[in-house]
Amino acid sequence: GPMRSFLLASLLSTSVFIPSEWVNTASLPPSIINQVERSLVRLTYPVEGVNFFTGEPQTMHFTCSGFVIGNDSRFVDGDLMVFSTILSDNHCLPPKAVEGEKQIDMIVDTYYTATILKVDEQDDLAILEAAMTKPPLKARNGSVMRGTSVFSFGFGFGLDTHLFLAHIVAAPLALIAEGYTPGMLVSPAYIPGMSGGPVVEDQGRVVSIVQASNNNIGYG
Predict the structure, then answer these.
(1) Predicted confidence band at 26 (pLDDT cuts at 50, 70, 90)?
(2) pTM of the full predicted structure?
(3) Do residues 13 and 183 lie in contact, with contact meaning Cβ atoms separated by under 8 Å?
(4) Judging by beta carbons within 10 Å of its beta carbon (0-12, 13-18, 19+), is residue 19 exposed, middle or buried?
(5) pLDDT tens sequence across 127-163
(6) Of residues 81, 83, 88, 82, the one with CA closest to residue 64
(7) Mean pLDDT, to the nearest integer, of 65-78?
(8) In this predicted model, what pLDDT tens digit does every residue of 78-99 receive, in sequence order?
(9) Which phi-psi region, left, alpha or beta, contains residue 78 (left: φ > 0; alpha: ψ -120 to 50)?
């Protein structure tokens, strides 16, 4: 899905080159990658658009990402059900989404219907729920340093499979523009569709969430 755009001209007016070895050698053990992957979710809902080639009206799917942060068991109509709590971005929700409502058209992992528990428009965050079970990710207790390797996961370009990207922390906490909450800046940038995906450090603990990007740098 489309990401919120923002201007970073004042930050990007000078060309910056990241040493190639910082990126090329940055990786995660397969066990950590698998741990994060199992918590990732794909969020989709239909939107009316126009076919690029024919100009005819066409139903397309807005795609975003999210990840599980907890699980809850409770009785529903006499049946014990398990629900996963999902963190994503507010801009990943349908335009008329309302807290507490089940989003009939918003699907988690192609099968489960999402219910919105809480939204925060200022920080561009949303907490959802779906009747599914995935292991939750944990957050890092404390910030990360500038120059640290971090890694993002998400369904870039709306693909059915997720992407895995390596980044360097450009600034642990930066105010990019008025109206934005101070957030982490990373380089290289994120890819559209990764919005709502987790950004983790080398232990697989969440340090940020994918929210916006330009061609050079990512924010969350």
Answers:
(1) low
(2) 0.84
(3) no
(4) exposed
(5) 999 999 999 999 999 889 999 999 999 999 988 899 9
(6) 88
(7) 94
(8) 999 999 999 999 999 988 788 8
(9) left
Which of these, 177, 178, 189, 179, lies nearest to 219 by C-alpha position?
189
Return d(Cα 65, Cα 87) in angstroms, integer: 9
Q: Are 67 and 220 in contact (CB under 8 A)?
A: no
Which pair of tokens denotes residue 154?
Answer: 């998400």
Instruction: Please report which residue ranges of 38-157 form alpha helices under DSSP H.
Output: none
160 — alpha (psi -120 to 50), left (phi > 0) or beta?
alpha
Alpha helices by DSSP H, 120-188? none
Tokens of 65: 């990402």
**C-alpha–C-alpha distance, residues 171 and 166, integer Å:** 15
Torsion sign across C-alpha atoms 106, 107, 112, 117: negative
Q: Taking 90 as the threshold, does the pLDDT of residue 65 lie above it? A: yes
Tokens of 116: 């919105």
Distance between CA 112 and CA 108 in Å, rounded?
5
What angle is formed at CA 164 by the lines to CA 82 and CA 34, rounded to 5 degrees?
Answer: 45
Backbone φ, ψ for residue 150 (5° rounding): -135, 165
How far is it, in rounded angstroms, from Cα 31 to Cα 202?
11
DSSP-derived 3-state class of residue 207: strand
Beta-strand ranges (E) seen in 33-181 are 40-50, 57-76, 79-88, 102-108, 112-120, 125-130, 149-154, 163-174
- Residue with the two structure tokens 């658009």: 49
Q: What's 4's DSSP letter? A: B
Residue 45 half-sphere exposure toward CB, CA atoms < 13 A = 15
